[in-house]
Structure formats: C-alpha cells, structure tokens
Fold each of these.
Amino acid sequence: MKRALRMSYLVAGVAGLGFFAMSVLLLAVWPGRVLEEQVRRMSPGHPLGLTASESRGRRIYAREGCAYCHTQQIRYVASDAARFGAATLAWETIFDYPHLWGTRRIGPDLSREASARSSDWHLSHLYSPRSLVQGSVMPAFVWLFDGAPDRPKQEGLDLLAYLETLGRDRALAAPEGEGRARAACDCSDDERLFAFGSAVLNASPALARRQGDHPKLAPSGDSKKGRQVYSRDCASCHGLRGEGDGPGAVGLHPRPANLSEHEYTLDRLSFALWNGAAGTGMPAWRDLPAADLAAVAELVRGFRAPQPEPAIPQAVLAVGAKVYAARCAQCHGEKGAGDGYAVNQFAVAPTNFRTQRPSLATSLRAVRDGIEGTPMAPWSSELSEAELSAVAYYVRGFFDSQ
Amino acid sequence: MTEIAPAALKVETRLVYAHGLAAIITLLISVAFGVMASIEMLVPEAGGNLPWLTWGRLRYDHTQGIMLGWLGNAFFAFLYHAVPLLTGRSVTSARLGQWIFGLWNFAVVAPGWVLVLAGFSQPLEWAEFPLVIDAFVVVALVLVIVQFLPPFFSRGLEDLYVSSWYIIGGLVFTLLAYPMGNFVPELVPGARGAAFSGLWIHDAIGLFVTPLALAILYFVIPAATRRPIFSHFLSMLGFWLLFFLYPLNGTHHYIFSVIPMSAQMGAIAASTLLGLDVILVVANLLLSLRGAGLFPRDIGLRFVATGTVFYLIVSIQGSVQAQMAINRQIHFSDWVIGHSHLAMLGFATFSAAGGLIHAWQRIPWVRYSGPMLSLSYWLLLAGVVIMVSDLTVAGLVEGRLWQSAAPWMDSVRAARPYWVIRTITFVPIAAGFLALLAGLVTGERGGGLQAVRDSVGLEPVAEIAPRFVAADL
C-alpha cells in the first residue's frame, strides 16, 4: 500500500512535469518550427537586417517602453488590415531579439511606419508630441535631443533610423516578394486576404503621396466645424491664424506653409488634405470625414487677407517670362503647373502656380532666398534684382482660380 | 491520519514579519510607480520630461514590483507560516531564510527597479527586469525550493493537503517557466520568440501567482472556519486540471497573429476549459466558506473570501476574452488592463493580504489593528471594483472606435475620462494599502491572537493543523 502510494506520487510528479513540457512543445516549440518553415518559404531572398545605428535605435525603443503603447503586429482581422495595412508575416520580425510585438495599443501599430511620415515630423514628434498631435499622451523624449527638435543627439537619430526600418523590408521586396510569399503561403482564405488582400501594404491614412486621387470637396458653409477641426489637427503646425507659426513648426524643414500668404483653389486644398505633401512634414488626413476636410479647406481659404494687386507693366512680365522659361520651367513646368521634366528628381514637389498663388512678398522672398528644406534654390546670386522681381510677378499670373 | 504536534513546530515568525513588511513596502512603491504612470497618461509632462520618470520605465517597474516585490514577499511570508503547519516540520534553515530575504529584496527587486529607471531593461511583459536580475531570480527560486520543499518530502507524501500540492507545484513550475519567459526570447527572434513569451505571460500568473494564491485560499479557509475543506476530491481534481490547462493558455495573448492557427485554437480551447475548472475550484472553496457570511468577521478570512470571488470573476472573464469574437473587439484595449488588475489587484492581492493577515494574527509578538485592516478591506474593495469596471468600459469604447473608420486619436480622446477615473481610484487603493500597513504595525502586540479568540472563542494554532489532513481523499 505504502509502495503504491509512493508510486502514485511519482506518477503525479512525472505527469506534472509532462504537462509543462507538453505546453512548451505544443505552444512554443512546434509553432516555432512551423514559423521557421514559413520564414524559409515566404521571406524575400535577402532581408536587410539592421545597421549598427538601427540596432541602437531598437534598443532605445525597447528601453523606453515604446512597445507597451505601440504594437508591431498587424493582426489577421479586417479592422487591423484596414487601419494599418497588410497583416504581419512571420519573416518580418526575424531580426527582433527579443520580439517587440506588444499586447497593448494606446498609440497606433507601427509595423508599417517606414516612410509613412517625414523624418523631421518624427523628430519633432519625439521631442514634443503635443506640438504636433493635440491630445497625444506620448512622453516627450527630450533627452534624445540637444534642446531642439531639429538638433537630435545620436540616440535620437538612432531611434529615427530604427523607426524607418519598420515594414521596410516588406515594402522593398514588393511586388515580387509579395507574389512569392503569397504563392508559398500555406494559409486559409482569411489569412491570405488580410496578409495580401489590400492594394497597398501600408494603409496609414497619414502616408503622404505625390500622386493619387482625391475626393472633390464641395464648398462648405460649416465654419464652426472648420475651426474646430483646424484648431485640433492643423493649428499645431500652421498656427491658429494659418501663419505657419504653430508650436510644431520649429522643427519642420520646410516650414509649414503660411496659409495666409497663399491663395489656393479648393481642388489644391483637397489634394493636400487627402494626400499630404510628400517630402514635408505635412501628413495626409484620409482618416477625417470629407465634410471635415471641406470645412477646413473653406476656413483655410479665408485666412488670406485680400491685398491690392498693382498692375504690372508688360515689359516687366516679358522679362519675367524669359527668366522663367530659362530658370524655372524645368521644375515648375512651362505653364506653371509644377510639371517640369525634372519634377521626379525631387523629394518635394515644385509648387503648382496654377492652383496656388503666393502673395507678392512671399513670391519675391522665395525666388530671392529659396525655400529652406526644399530643392528651391536661392536665385539672388544668379539673377539681377530686376529679374528676380520680374519673375516673382510673372509666376503669380499662372493662377487659375477655377 | 497523521497527527501533528503543534508544540514541536518551529515557525520562523521573524521571517514572516520581515517578508510581510517588505511585501507592503514594495507594494506601496509599486503603487507609486503605477499611479505616476497613470497620471502621465493625463498630464504627459508630469514627470518633468526626465528619462527615469518616463512612462515606459515606470510601467516596467510597476508590474515587476507587484509580481516580485509585493506578491513574492507576501507569498514567502505565508510559506514561512504555512509550511511548518502543513508538514509538521520546520523549514530548512533560518539562515537560508535571511539569504533568500536579502537576495530577493536587495539583489532582485531594489536593483531591478533602479536598473529599469536607469534604462537597463527587457521589453517583455512580466519579464521587464534586465537579464542580470533574472539570474538572481533563478538563484533565489532555487533557494526557495531548498527552503520550503524538503519538509514536505521528509514528512512523507501521504495525506498531502491540497495547499501543499499547490506550493510544490507553484515553486517547481515557476523555476521552470521563469527562464523560458526571460531568457528564451533573447535567443529566439520575432514570432518564434513571441510564442515563448505568450507562454510566460500566462505562466507568470498561472504557475507562480495562482498556485500560491490558491494555496493561501485552501489554507486560510479551513484554518479560519475550523472546518475541513468541502471536498478534497474536488480540490485535487481542480489542482490537476489547473496544472494541465494553465500552461496551455499562453498563446491566447496572440490570437489572430501569425502564430499557427492550430496553436491559437488549442489555447482558446484550454482557456475555455480553464474557466470551467475554476468554477469547480471556486465552488469547492465557497462551499467550504458556507456559514461564514459574505463578509466574515475574521478579517483575514474576509480578504480571502473576496479573493475567491474575484478569482471566479477574473477567470470567467479570461475565458470569455479568449474567444475569437470577443478578442477581436477588446484585444489591445483597456479591457485587458482591467482584466490584469482584477487578477493581480483583485484575486492575487486579496488572497495574499488575507494570507499575510492570517499569519500575522498567529504571531504573538507583532502588533495588530483589526479596525485598520477592516478599513483597508473596504477601501481596497471599492478601489478595485471602480477601477476594473471603469477600464472595462473604456476598453469597450476603444474597441468600438478601432473597429470604425474614426481617426486613431479619437480613441485616445474618448478614453481620457476613463483614465481620469482610473487615476482617482488611486486614492482608495493607496489609502487601503496604507491602512493595511497600519493594521500590521499599529495596535496591541498580540492583538491578532486576541482577535481570533474573540471571533471563534478558541486558541488559534492548536486547533488548526489537524483539519488539513486529507481524511476523505
């Protein structure tokens, strides 16, 4: 009897250890093998891995607890795929020792953050999140900077470099990589839909793009709505009166547009709100309802104080036309539509003067001093004072308010 | 039936006392980390933009402090009381006890906190202390096993009471699971590492916190009510089902992830069965409590009884939120934060506090204030109920917005009022813990013994031990 009892405890002990071992085998070791096999079949040939700077940035991301508010895991569900993009594949995290998947979202998922926003936006946001995003609860990581958002320390640059790796390999491998992974995927219809089903890998509503459709916003009379949305989402950079002097403006290069110094067509504003301004800190706002965007556009059009428009002598305009054709048309286009042959050389699109007219002062300043943070060079050393002002007058004539 | 001679017992009351005080001090510090983190979600600049007061680092220290500092110390205090009574043998060595105390508090918890604040940590849930600290944890866990398990084996394993099973199981499996959660993801990358992490996220609760908390529940209820547990058969059935099912739950933290769907499904099935098993366990405990009232006069028993109810609620909630249709909606949201507070602040904390108070009552030379402990109970009960309800609703609101096309920031703005309420619940909770401390360091020396005599009219220790013998197993 005693012996049988002792045996039963032995059996119980072995069974207990067996349960634990079984859980590890069934839920970690075996899935690990499946995942390893998936990685082998579905990964692109040469995923990039992380540079030394990106690895350091990853350690900062880990140290500051970023993963406790931002997941790096787009789930295989419709709401995740719609909000963030293609669901995360196993191979996308193979360089993560340890993984940074996260189990809580206070901020959005960051799996597709690479190229979603500009570097100066990220730095400004890391330095002072509420200067750019009203109501954000993100900590301000000022110790990664040397006292200003555009003076990051090496740690700030490292973290930025790491953020730019999130989703990078998958984006670089597309479209061949997507095709290969899709063909190799031993997955259910649902999984295939969420991993490969969407037209874009990155569904971020803030992702700025140079080209793209945008809704035709109708003129809006809802000025209350316009002010509300503008002061919530736009004033942080563009300033309450649209003068480009919001608290978020200091770290952005180029500076946010001074909206009071430009006349915009409704279509121009619709495009900018829907697609952002690629290469600048201006994100897209595709997650806002069209009615909100229309109300904001209306408000923005009202920022411009009407100014007297002096008549420009024909001779001056002729000089302007000549200078423009020689110096400006290759970028801004023959007819000022921002479609010169050199357009695609630049990260920031040249101004389309047909849909946007700068004030005379702004036009003069731009041609004389250039626009910091863009390829627009200062021309004061190349052109005479008369030529500078002539071309500044001339480009304002392209505007077509329709 | 083995007779136990209480007179021959040596209970290391000084170690109960030391771990008890360390538990409450680390608890208060952990609560301070928590409330600071919650304030920073309302006023992000509240930490003065200092790196060591940043949200992420406070968040790491909050949970590690609760698990290792508060619950670890409270469990050890309880074990110093319970193991001699359960086995009729003394623990291995008082000197070893001093080493464990020193290691746990001064080589694990305190330096762990400091290192995390200084920027040395590990971004893994329930494993945030850096690797060097993990090494000390493993050493300490080995010493804990050396300290507490030999009495069980030297006594012989016949008639092992269910609390003893939970203690043996909890300590052994924690030692096995801890390295898996803390070391393996450093060696196995990405999704594969996450599969191991998922196991540990659950095992930290399922193999460390829950077994030791249940050991307390199964110990205190018969000891305080002076009646054997309702059914030893149900106790053992519950025990084996728990140890079978708990480790299989882990992957439910990563439902709809790239981890193979069959592993997810298995974890969901195990989570469902676990809820059913907990109904069995809690039914047994509540039936053992029958006649004691909903809020027993014995304050230790009152904490334990409420801990039992929280255990039922949090486990059923766990089963529910592992279901795909629910998980799709509430995963990543404050609902889960509510769930973890119901588990750690509700179930585990009430059980640990009940066990600590129960042990305290039986040390003749410590101070004890019944009214303070009663005040602590009501404050904590109010705090937990309000906080968990608040976060649960917040989670539903966030989940609904995430399902819609609303901008992300809408969910942050919508959560704010709930976060305000959550921060306000700091007041009753912190006051409750201060009252708990006051209850254990103010009042009459030996007041606990008097309280037990008053509530049941019997001498405490002599009456208790034989009741544990598994007569009807």
Amino acid sequence: MKVRYTFGVSLAVIAVLGACSAPPKRIESLEMARTLVPQVETSERAGVAAADLSNARKSLDAANRLAEGRGKRADIEYQSEMAVMSAQIAHEKILAAEAQQKVEGATAQRQQVLLQAREREIERSAMDAKDADARALSAERSADASEKHAASLEDELAGMRATRTERGLVLTLGDVLFDTGQAAIRPAAYGTLDRLASALRDHPSRSVVIEGHTDNVGDDSSNQRLSESRAQSVQSALLQRGVSTTQVSAVGRGESVPVSENESLGGRQQNRRVELIFTDDRAQSAL
Amino acid sequence: MNKQPIVRTPSATRRTGTRGLLVLSMLGAGMIAGCAGSSTLTKDRVAQSEVAVRQAQQQIGQSESGATELQQAKNSLAAAQNSMSRGDEQGADRNATRARLHAELAVAKSQSAAAQSAAAEVLASSKTLQQEVDRNSQIAR
C-alpha cells in the first residue's frame, strides 16, 4: 500500500514537473506571430504604423522569451495573440495609407487630365475662331463678289438700255421684236433674250416679271389676250434658255398702262411693248 | 535513552492556536480582497476598453468591414467585465486589452476598406475621364 502511495505521488510529481518543464508544443498563434510581425515590419510604408509594430514586436519578443523559458502556454498564447493583433492593425493602417496615396495620385492625374482637356479646348476654340474668321472673310469676299456680279448684271441690263424706275429696273422690248398683231418673237430679239437668260442664270436670286402692253387699237379683250401672249412668249423664250421657272412670271396688261399717247403712230408704237421688270432686294415689282 | 513524552503545556497550545488563527485571517483577508474587486489599474483598463469599443461602434456604424472584429471586441469586453466581477484580475486585464485591440483593428479595417474603395473609385473615374478626353480630341481632329 505504501509503494502504491509512493508511485502515485511520483506520478503526480512527474506530471506536475513535466507540465512545468516540458517545452511547449507547437503553438499556432506564436507561429503566426513569428510569420506576420516580420512580414509587416518589412513593409515599405511600415513607418505609418510604427507604434503598432513596436507593440507587436514587444509582444512577440515576450512570447518568444516565455517559449524559451518554459513559460505557461496560456501566457505564450496571450502574448502571441497580442503580437498578431498589433501586426494586423499595423497592416490595415499601411493598406489605408497606400490607398490614400493612390487617391492622391489619381486626383493629381485627374487634375492633369482636366488641365490637358482645358488646354485642348482652348486650342480648339482658337482654331475655331481662326476658322470662323477665315469663313467670315470668305463670306465677305463672296458677298463682294456677288455685289460685283450684281453690279455687272445691273451694268449689263443698263447696257441693254434698262432703266431704273420706281418699280425696279425695267428693260423694254419694243414692238419691232414681234410680228404685227402676233405673239411670236422675231429672231432679231434672240440676242437680247440670250443675254437676259444668261444674266438671270448667273443670278438665280433675282427674278423678272414680264408685262405685255398694247396700244388702244382694237377691243380691250383682244388687246389683253395679245399682251398676255407676248409676255408668255418672252417667258417661254427665257425658260427655253435655262432660266428657272421660279425666276420668271408673265402677265398681260392690255392697253391699261400706256407710256405714250395713242393718237400718233409713234405714240402707239411706244405703247406696244413688253417690259421686263427685274426684282430683287433693291427692286420690287409693282404687281 | 529515556523517552520523554511530549507534553503540551497549556501556554504552548494557546500559541499554536493563535498562529493558526493569524494564518487563517490572512488567507481570509486575501480571499475577501480578491472577491471584493480588482485593482485600479485593471478597472481603468476595462474602462478604456469600454470607451474604445463604443468609439469603434460609432465609427464603423453599419459598415461590413470591421464588423467581425467589433463583435470580438464586444465579446472580449464582456469577458473582461465578467472576470472583474469574479475578481479574476489577470483575466479582466487580458480580456480588456483584447477588447481594445479588437476595437482598434475593427476601426483600422473599416478605414482601410473605405480608403481602398475611394482609391478604386477615383482611379476608375480618372480613367473614364482620360478616355473621354481622348475621344473628344479624336473627334475634334
């Protein structure tokens, strides 16, 4: 019984001594701390979490000392846990600092892009303004050219003995260009009609109203028909020569608008006529 | 050799009894002290952890990042308070420290996630802007 008692005590002592003296088995948290702490310490931006890394290092050192000095497992685990947590805090702070740096970099880059865009915009505006100036100059020249063209038309019409009246520029085709009592145009008028058609084609913005007139010989209705026919003949001749239909209109005035007295031969001849009234901005038809 | 019987005199018996009482009293006082509460240092540490956990709660809000660590901080704080009420000085001290570190880690994780999210957003925005500017330039040409 005494032996059994002694053995039992010995076992207990061995167990106790064993528990105290045996080196601790692999401690997971300590291994983790031994891996993690140096890893975070060597980070490029470790400086932003210096205090946390210092705490982590102190705790790891304490855990190592306890492990080497056969300290209690619970104490080793506690110190290891503290080391791991401090290292994790440091790691998160480093990540935050790196992200912040990225934000600053991206913001600067964004500013650069905006600046670049603004410079390009200014450059484009300047080019647009230059183009606009060029276009304006070109338009001005074109307007001048048109003016010159218009002037040449006026000159040309003036050369054809056109006269400026309140109704506009009026060119009169005399009676001699038509057969007596007929609407057919004599070939002698073709040259004049060619020039007129050419001038109107060159100036599509201008239009002409063709008015037919007669003397007072005969009845009104036949004079009216004759004046209309002659006006239409001239209109057809111009259209045949390529003038746009929108530029030309024809109307018969009969004997209602004489330019001379109908008593004499000369007066009646003047009254038998076809007038071409050119209308544009400067000359409006008095239809 | 004459064996002399051990005879306890009344005075000796009294002395032994007094010593025992003294030892018992000291043990009792120690136990009472242990049960009555922890040291000021531990109390302070637990109080600091309470503040740290509360602040972490406010900073993290409903954010997902750091939520796990915040819960661990709350658990550790509860364990610290429990240890303190039981008079477990070391348990209270260690759990209070755990709670504080968990709270700090929760805040750090939350801030890190927010910063990384902001960085990703700004980078994406910057990239889109660059593409837009390049496209406009090409159109202008």
Amino acid sequence: VKSVAMLAFGLALGAEERLGPPPLGLDLLLRAPESNPMQRGKVELGRRLFFDKNLSRDGTLACAGCHDPKLAFSDGRVVARGIHGVDGTRNSPALINRGYGESFFWDGRAATLEAQAIEPILNPKELGLSLEELDQRTGKKASEVTAALAAYVRTIRSGDSPYDRYVAGQADALTDLEKRGMALFRGKARCNNCHSGPTFTDEQFHNTGITWRDGRLFDEGRFTVSGRTRDHGAFKTPSLREVARTAPYMHDGSLARLEDVIDFYSNGALANPYLDSEIRPLHLSAGEKRALLDFLRSLTGEIRQGWQ
Amino acid sequence: MKHIFLTAMMMTAAAVALARDPAREQTLQRAIDLVESKGDMAKAMPLFEDVARSADKALAARALLHLANAQERQGKEQARATYERIVKEFGNQTEAVEQARLRLAALGGAPQTRAIMARLVVPADKEKSSGFDKITADGRFGAGEDWTTGDLIVRDMTTGKITRLLPGSLDAKSWTGRYVAWPVLSPDQKQIVFARYGDPKTPNQGQLWVMPNIPGAKPRLISDNPEYRNLPAQAWSTDGKSVLVTIERVDKSYQLAWISVADGSAKVLKSFDWKHYPDYHARLSPDGRYIAYSAEVREDFTESHINVIASDGSIETVLVKTAGRNDQPVWTPDGSHILFVSNRSGASDLWSIPVHEGKPAGVVSLVKRDIGRIANIGMTRSGSLYYYSKQDGIEYASIAGLSGHSASEKFVGNMPRWSPDGKYIALMRHRPSISDTADLVVHSLDSGEEKTFSHDGLRGSPPRWFPDGQSILVNTGTPDMEKVFYRVDLKSGEFHKLLTVDRLQTAVSSLSPDGKTLYLIGRSDPKTFVFDRVVAHDLTTGRALREFKPAVGISGFALSPDGSTLAIASIMDPQTKEARLSRVAVDGSDFRELYNSVRAVAYKAMFDRIAWTGDGRGILFVESDRNNNFRLMRISAEAGKPEYTGFEAPGIISINPHPDGSRIAYSAAKQVNEIWALDNLQSIWEKPQ
C-alpha cells in the first residue's frame, strides 16, 4: 500500500499560488497525494476544522485538544484523553512535519494523512462522531473533511532551529556543548541511526523494549499491522524536532523527561526477544548526557502552520 | 591521417584469427603491397573487390576497408559508398564497422543509415587517467578530471585535445593533495563548476568551486560547508544562477539540492537516508523543469528506481519501478523521453520511457540490449548518447609461442584449454554485464568458428576436455556453494550430470588422461579458505575414491600427462607472497619438494597458473617479479632451479600448453575504460514520416 501511495504522491499544482517555502532545514518536496492538492481555501478550511470542537460528540474537544500548537502540536499528557475524560492507550504524537511522513500513527496503520484524519473523529474514545454526525455538523462529506484536515496538517512545519542554521553554514549557531552533543548524536550515541534526515526520523519501526513488562509485550505495536515477527513491540521513530516541548516521551508517555530518555538508551533500552539490533548499551558519561540534552534542545525552532 | 588509418587496419589484420579463405588472404596481401609499395591503385582495386566476395566476412570487410581507402586516395566518391556498405552489410565485424564510421565522419557527413549504432570515441589506451566527463549539449566538450594529477580538464570530443584549466596536486598513490571532481560546464560554456577536495584545513570535506572556462583563470569558492562531505555537481540551472548537486552529508544522509552560484546557499529539494541514497547521475530536463535521478530502494542495493522531481520541488513521480536496478537516466534532447539502464532482463540493457509533465506517458521500450556496465556522460542535441564503458577484469584468452612475447591470436574468454588434437580451444566466456555467469565456448582454430554451450549457474572454472575430444567437463557453483559437474556433449549440446561435491571442495580440478577420475582440492576447516586435501572422484559412479592431505597447503595444482603425479603450488608466506612447488603421487605417496622460493602472483592465487609440459618432464608456472610482471617459468619435474621460458604477459590468470609443447594458451584480465557514443537515437522520439 505504501509503495502505491508513494507512486501517486506529488503536490499537484494548478495555476494558483503555491504554499510558501518551508522553514530552513526542510525539503521543498512535500508528500501530498495528487488527489488532494494543496490549495489555500482547503488549508484554511482544514485549520478551522482542526480547532473546531463540534467535531467531537460532546462538543468539548477538537483535534487541537490533543495537538496543541503551544506544545508543538502535542498535549503534554502521558496518553491521549478523549471525550468524557476517557484515556487512550498511547501518547499523542506531535503533529509537526507530518507532510514528510510515510505512514501515520505509532503503528503506521494509516498510509496517508487523509486516512489518518478520520480515525480520531470516529473513535469512541477520542472524538466519537459517526459519519452521519460529521456530515450534519460540517455540511461536508467525510472525504472533504479529511482532505482539508490533511492539507492543513501538511502545512505544520518546524525548522529554522539553531541546528538548521548551523548546518546551513552559521558556525556560531550552536554552542560548543551543543556541537559536542551533535557529534555524540551522530556517533557514539547512535541516535542518528533511526532519528535521521531533516525530520529526524527514518519513518521506520523499532522495538526499544519500552512495552516489555513481566515477560511480555503490553502493546504489540507495528506487529498488529504487519504481522511480521520483527515488528513485535515495534513503534514508529518519532521526529525529534521540537522534542524539548513534547514531553512526556515514548509511545506510551512512560518517560517524563528528556533526561529519562537519554538514560533509557544509555542503559541499552529494555532487553526483550525482539529488541532492535541497532540498540545497545551506550555507557554515556554525565557530561555526554548533558551535551546530548543540549543538542536535542537545539532542535527547537520555528513552527509555521497554515497557508504562508 | 591515412597512414595512421592504414597502420591501424594492418594491426587489426594481424590480430584476427586464422583466415578461412587462404587464397584470398594472399590476394589481399598482394593488393596491399601494390598500394603501399607501388602506389598502383588501378591494379589493386579489382583485387580488393575480389577478396570482398569471400565467404570469410572478416576478410571481406578488411578488403573493403582497403578498397575504400584506395578510393579515398584517388578522391573518388565511391569511398563513401564502400564505407557505408561496410556499415550496412558487415554489422558483426565491429572493428571494421568502427573504422568505416570514423572515416565516414571524417568525410564530412553522418552515415546514411538511421540504425542506432555504437561508436568508440576514446579508446581504452587513451582513457586511463581521466574521470567522469559530462558532455555539452552540442557534443563538443566534455568536462572531467585527471585522476593522476587532480587537474580540472576539458576534452574536445572531436579532436581529443585536452585543455587543463586548473592544476591539482594529487599524489595518486597516497591519494593526498588537492584534486577536483564532478565538473560541469555552464550552458554557455563560459564557466565551469566543480567539486574540490583535499584542502589541508578540511581534508574530509568537499567544496564547490566555479571558474571561467579559461586555463589559469582564478577559481572562486561557492560552498565550504563542513556538513558536506561530498557535493558532486550534476547540472547548471537554465538561468545559470544555480547548480544542481547531490550532497553527501557528514551525518550519512544525502540531499538533492540547488546551490546558488552567487552565495552558496542551498535549496534542498529532497533528502535521503543512507539506505536509499540517490546516485550521482541526476539529469536536468532540456527545459529545466524536471530532474531525473535514480535512488536505491532496498537495503541490499539490489533495486533502484527512476524518479522525476520538479526542479522547484513541487512534485515527484516514480517513473520506473520495476524490480532490479534501474539507473543512469538521461533526457532525450526534446525532453519527451528518458533513457535509462535496467537489468530487468538479466543483462544490462538500455531502455526508454516517454515522459510528459514529469510523469510516464507510455510504456518502456528496449533501445539497446546488453549495453554493459556504463556510466552515462550525457546526450547531445543531435541525439548521441555518450557514456563510459567501464569493465573490470575483461578476460582475454590468447595463444602465443612459448618463447615469444606477443600473442598470435586473441579472443574474449578465460581459462583456455587445448583440445586433445590441438585444433580447438575451449574457454569460459563471461556474459557481458553478468560477471558471475559464463558460457562454455569452443573455438575452432582452423575456421575461427565458435560454438557456445550455456547452462544455468555455469561459472568461470576451467573447462576440461575428455580424451575423446567430443566432450568437455564443466561445473556450476560459486566458491562457497555446492558444485555440480557436467559432461557437455559437443555434438548434441546436452549437459549430462556426473558429480556433485560439497562446498568445501573447489572447482579447480584435474581430469585423469582416461577421463574417469577427477581430482579436486578441498579444505578441512569450513571457516577458513586453506586448501589442504586432494579428493579423487570416480566420474563413472559419482563417488569419492580416496583423499589425502599432502604435507603442504595447496594454492594450485596440475596433473601430469600420464596421470601419475600432481604438481602442487603452495603459499608459504602470505606477506612475502612466496610459494613452493612440490609433487606428490596421486595416491598421496612420494611427496617431494621441488623449489621453495617461487614469487607467487598473489596469496591463494596460483590456482590455474601451473601446468605440466606436454612431455611430462617439466612443470610450468607463472611467477611475478617486483614490478608485477608475469613471467612463465619452467622447472624440471625431478629437481633443479626454475628457468625463465622467455614468455611473459601482463595479468596472466591461467596457462595451458599445447600438447606438442610449441605454443601456450593463456588468459589474462584487463580493465577496459572507454568512452562510447550511441548515435542515431532520434528514432526514439521522432515519429516516422
């Protein structure tokens, strides 16, 4: 499915104006399907829908309830909270730079943002609408709503961080400690093996053992989608852009601070039968952890959203 | 010019196989003498015409070349017609056709034929030092680098003249010093942009420079970003303000980006991780709106797709995504098609696909089968595709006198073996572009005819004649796989399975004179490649008869003509590459060391470089001197010091003396690095009238 979707991807343009350039550090090419070209009116509709609480059954929540712009489009909770205060099972991912994504949700079960957008609306534990209610409340077909939401989400882009300015040639954009952290990130700490590219994610699925408790996996993750043995307990690599603003961490929000995440990986994550082969104990010193932390904080930049 | 031409033809003539029409061969020599010694064209030309009627096509083509040359000397218009006849009627005589095409081009016009033709532009012996060129749209100039000096060069593709724009300071042995790579001339040919490496302050960093296309002009630094390890220039934008580059970054990622010539700022079109990186052949469409490139798809690098991305990054399409490798995209001059190389057929073929607005607009079609491993340099407005043909280790089998230095006959192939009657040579010929697959070829030394025998999995191990001269033993299987031995019936072409051996035994083998016993060498430890045992197999039953471990390791061996004794070469010291020669009876008894200071060619590489003389009294082997010259040595099978036979040749892989001891068949590997052009490609995009 992914390859078919990839083939069709492309940002179809009419004669109208184009979405403005991305912040420094991101690619010009966005992954938008030909069937849903980027258009100003559609993006604006998507933005309104994104913040519209009428998209929830009890009128208390919008998409932005779990994807708050003030928190880099995450929610600061351990796991997502839906209507009637019901908690979900996974942490709300930060909705930044998803226009560059290849699959969606922690387990990658949606191949496009359009397919992703409808699920939280219909999920009884999240926004809890039916298709008929969605139609009645918005006056639009579900496909129009999801197309608009997807188009808007594609405009949420984070870049122009101190890191981006440094790699563009501004040598003093990073402190010496941050530069040391960057070297660790790419070297000894092995972060770069999965958190790679301009969005700091390889868009792949890895088992870190975070869901391994009492001798079993509490969440099978990607395996429920692919059925492949290697995907037991594997979750999609999250972007590290704006990572200092998207606590708590991991797919289940079980690590409260970035320091905890660094400790987790320094100790070799959590051993389990399906642990990713990239992961091994790092034995980072206190100084190295500090440098890595500072570097991760340098990934906080400018978030643009909407038609600009 | 004519002298050069004639000399080239004579050299060609000397290299060809024995003539199949001896009478006309003599006639041709008489006609050549008439032209060269007496200048008597009038008498020579009818003789050339007579020889041109020979059934021996090679001889006929040579005669026509001489005839056309004679016609040229007389200023006759018929010369053109004769050259065109060669091109049209003698397609399989590639050397003659190339000569004819060169002369047609020199006569001031393209050949009349519209067939797609390959043309050698820069031969191998002149293409030793320069690197990747990109050709200008008018086909006149190629930009490149001199790998021996690091100089930035521009080659005039018509005259071959090389202009050095910027000197490098490369020490090619240590690979230190400054050097350039990936130069591209601007569309107006006034500037040249290039990557530069080896700055002492940033030795692991690539820089992007630009300079006027004038020797000695001052270059200007465009980009000096420590994040960029490598930034090969791919193309200029149509407005000349930016350069398309494929950036390899220090964080192991790649980017396809435009870099401003004015200030070095980058606009990244698309990023790639190290598992899915793009190759360095991104090509801008003639109108500048799209970029074609290929990128890896699988982590094992067995699959790559052709993509087209808008040059403003607004859209991308996967243009070709069939399984296997699809790469080397290049736009036709009108931008309506993309040509690319694909191995979908099992060989490396050139294909085309129509494109409209950056998307596929039709089905792919084959342009040229088996073009080989190429690196395209670019396509000219006139419809010629220029490309590097790079092939490592092309194998040539040759026949030479044992005391001489030059080969009398030469053909493509490896591991030559004389037939029992000495009239045929059996050899293994690797298929172009599929290096690990070979065919058995039997070459008649009388007629020059060849018969090819193919089987799945056939490799380049030595073929072995059975004593009847009617069948040959060959095998399938790579060094670390099970091997299956077959008897090939040369009349019927059938392969009869005789024997299967485990992966610990090599395919290097000797066949007993009665054709019933096969000796193989093997290793005891599967974790190492130390061969320490000899296994004798009964080919009639397929069972192992016996095995023994000689007192030495084995890096090469050969069975005496009477079938009683094995000569063994063994490496003593991998560092010094010194080897020793020994002999042992086929039952493992009577081990004797003959000599212990052989300078081996390479560690574990004596496999087929040892043989017995036809009389069984001596052993021949290949030794390399300090300058890596390969010399054929002879040692008495009883004792004594080796003696130089007087024969030497570069890169010898395999030796096999003629049964009568007068000549030797041998094979050697040679790297071929040439620039070719594929002409008349207009038929791909021009509709028939």
